[in-house]
């Protein structure tokens, strides 16, 4: 995994970097929050480990800003604060999970794996099946099933759904879809493809964000 560690404490940061590196992960460690947004913009991380008490900013406020700016990287908050209010505040600001220092390394590793797996919507291992509600999109077989029944998709519909599933819980802009997926389309507009896709997979999966784009939610409405 590519891990972004934001932790000002030298001892904790060094220890985490060493442990994670030894587990085969690639760790980028920063001690100040000021550069976090730029780094997240430049590099695709699988997960971010975020200390809430940073010298130059409040970690929770930073995370809220990152979420507002559209950064969807899964975040595990690590903090010394242990009150219930702070725990809830951590989720409120957009954290995926929360650990109180000091914590056990095996538990940290297990939680990191769990939130990365959750975020990707993929099961463990090499099986490239994306699941959402009753849908299962199998990349290897280029097939989709809904509640176990095969659904025939065009190449473009498949690519659109794959892109939306990969980016679940964030808005995928029209431009992203038009540039990334439609070059392979059969000459129809994005909206026509989405409309056809909805008829095949059912309503409630793909949400329209008017004038901006489309998104799917991990928990379909
Ligand atoms: Ca700190």
Task: Describe the model.
- By secondary structure, this protein is of the alpha/beta class.
- It has helices spanning 10-22, 36-42, 59-68, 84-92, 105-120, 155-166, 174-180, 190-201; strands at 2-6, 26-30, 47-51, 75-79, 97-100, 129-132, 135-138, 143-146, 149-151, 172-173, 206-209, 213-216.
- A five-stranded parallel beta sheet has the order 2-1-3-4-5, sandwiched between helices.
- Helix 3 (59-68) links the parallel strand 3 (47-51) and strand 4 (75-79).
- It is elongated and about 55 Å long.
- The mean pLDDT is 85.
- Calcium ion binds next to loops.
Which helices and strands occur, and which strands form pairs?
Elements: E1 2-6, H1 10-22, E2 26-30, H2 36-42, E3 47-51, H3 59-68, E4 75-79, H4 84-92, E5 97-100, H5 105-120, E6 129-132, E7 135-138, E8 143-146, E9 149-151, H6 155-166, E10 172-173, H7 174-180, H8 190-201, E11 206-209, E12 213-216
Parallel strand pairs: 1-2, 1-3, 3-4, 4-5
Antiparallel strand pairs: 6-7, 7-8, 8-9, 10-12, 11-12
Helix pairs in contact: 6-8
Bound molecules: calcium ion.
Strand order of the largest sheet: 2-1-3-4-5
Tally of alpha and pi helices:
8
**Contiguous uncertain segments of 5+ residues:** none
- Bound ligands, each once: calcium ion
Give the SSE string: EHEHEHEHEHEEEEHEHHEE
The helicity comes to 25-40%
Number of strands: 12
Q: Please tell me what the overall shape is.
A: elongated
β-strand percent reads 15-25%
Distance between the termini: 31 Å
Oligomer, anyone?
Answer: single chain
Rg from C-alpha positions? 19 Å
Biggest sheet features: 5 strands, parallel
Mean pLDDT, to the nearest integer, reads 85
Structural class: alpha/beta
């Amino acid at each position: 995994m590519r891990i972004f560690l934001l932790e000002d404490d030298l001892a904790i940061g060094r220890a985490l970097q060493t442990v994670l590196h030894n587990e085969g992960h690639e760790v980028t460690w920063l001690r100040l929050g000021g550069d976090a947004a730029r780094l997240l913009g430049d590099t695709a991380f699988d997960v971010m480990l975020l200390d809430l008490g940073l010298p130059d900013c409040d970690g929770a406020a930073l995370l809220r800003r990152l979420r507002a700016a559209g950064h969807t990287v899964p975040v595990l908050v690590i903090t010394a604060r242990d009150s219930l209010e702070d725990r809830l505040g951590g989720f409120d600001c957009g954290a995926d999970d929360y650990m109180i220092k000091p914590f056990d390394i095996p538990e940290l590793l297990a939680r990191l794996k769990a939130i990365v797996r959750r975020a990707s919507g993929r099961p463990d291992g090499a099986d490239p099946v994306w699941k959402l509600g009753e849908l299962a999109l199998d990349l290897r077989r280029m097939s989709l099933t809904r509640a176990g029944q095969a659904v025939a998709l065009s190449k473009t519909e498949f690519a659109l759904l794959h892109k939306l599933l990969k980016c679940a819980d964030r808005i995928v802009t029209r431009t992203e879809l038009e540039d990334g997926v439609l070059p392979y389309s059969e000459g129809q507009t994005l909206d026509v493809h989405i409309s056809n896709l909805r008829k095949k997979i059912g309503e409630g999966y793909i949400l329209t964000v008017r004038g901006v784009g489309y998104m799917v939610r991990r928990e379909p409405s």
